Amino acid sequence: MQHSSSIEQLSTIKAFLKQTNNNIGKSVEELRNEMVQASAKLPKLPNVVFQKIEIGPINGEWVTAGDLVTEKEDEQQVILYFHGGGFFTGSCEIYRDLAARIAQSSGVRVLTLEYRLAPEFLYPTANEDCLFAYHWLLENGYSAHNIVFGGDSVGASLALMTLLSLRDADEVLPAGAFLISPHTDLVHLDGESYITRAELDPTGSLAYNQRIRNTYLGLGNKQLDEYPAILSPLRMDLRGLPSILIQVGDQEVLLSDAVRFTERARAAGAPVLLEVWEQMWSVFHLLAYMLPEAEQAINNIGQYVRTLLTRSQS
Question: Which PANTHER family match (predicted)?
Answer without folding.
Answer: AB HYDROLASE SUPERFAMILY PROTEIN C4A8.06C, ALPHA_BETA HYDROLASE FOLD-3 DOMAIN-CONTAINING PROTEIN-RELATED
